[in-house]
Amino acid sequence: MAVRIAIANVRGGVGKSTTSMMLAEGLALKQLRVLVLDIDPQAMVSELLLRFGGLRQAVKDKRTLAHVLGRFAQGKALKLASSRMPASDLAELHNVRWPGKVDIIASNTVLLKDIGGIEQAIRTRYPDRRLDDAIARVFEAELHSLDASYDVVIFDCQAGTAPLNLAALRLAQHVIAPTNLEDNSFAKLMDFVRIILDDDLGLAGQLTVHLLFTMFVEDDPQQKRFLKFIKSRIKGLNYLPRPIPFSTAIQRAASDAGTGKPRSATEKYGSALIDVEMLANEIIARTLVDS
To answer: Is residue 7 packed enough to be buried (19+ CB in 10 Å), middle (13-18) or exposed (0-12)?
Structure first.
């Protein structure tokens, strides 16, 4: 069975989609097969991995999550597999002999408009279940059929605790929760962790939550003090030890489409490639070794 990882936080702007891109490509560079399921209507990770032209083609071909769920709402089969698209512009992943790959089921803003009708259709079909549980049930069989094709499935969640997000948490074994090092962000993250591990959802024995500190500025004394405080004072906190820096190399990787042709990982990430590799190595050690 593919390892399923949700990238989630109740707050926006903390680096969820950038983390999803870096992790997906980092794992693929480690020769793993990765499927990204973008369940955020803002579609940021879809833009990062497909670029605007690729996302526009996905919308034109009706191969987005909005189209998948729209067909299901009309009583048709979900058919996730038919909406997959090859993603990433890394040259290494375009080598036909390279075993690693990144595929994506893209999102788009149409999902914002359609989600109410889709949720009502699912409620009608599963009247005795919580909505998030019903959505998870809809996806489970489809994802199970894709297990042989992938080593890792990544859910890129929108901010908050919408039913689609909670469904992704039900489907996952691991949650990576990015947060920046600021008091309010961290407090809200702790509230989010308590919500998703609350007895009401029944996920406490199913999910392992990994905190990832993002947009770290090493010469910011307040961030350094807060990071030191967290590491020394908050016992039992399951955090990833290496923060993701706020660096121009990462910003460039997330915004610069290059020439439109495949580029090497070094060309894309520059000095930030070590952060991509370290993140992938840490997640492999935590989720895939001995699994």
So the answer is: buried
